[in-house]
Amino acid sequence: MFNNQSVIEPSLFGVLIQTNSIYCGIPLKEIQLPEKCSFLGILRKEQVIPAQENPEIYSGDYILAIAIHPMMVPALKVTLKKIHSVYYSLNACLLEARPIPTQPSLFRR
To answer: What Gene3D superfamilies has UniProt attached to this entry (predicted)?
Structure first.
């Protein structure tokens, strides 16, 4: 009746999306996941948004995902935690609008 196969337990987890995540501002389904991994949805402000709605990802969201095989968990975490090498956000800019100081002309009399 039962084969002598080991039971593989899926791994469920959530990954917090940082301000400099490469996924800020894109729809969930645009992320290419490793094999044997799937999205469950996004947790945003105590509300679960199912993956079927293909929500846009924002800083502070938790991406909820499942790895069907435990060996895929590290690859899935690395995929979902990708960030820009320089601080970047669609919602924030670290550059301040400041007037550029003018330098005195050398040719003025």
So the answer is: Regulator of K+ conductance, C-terminal domain
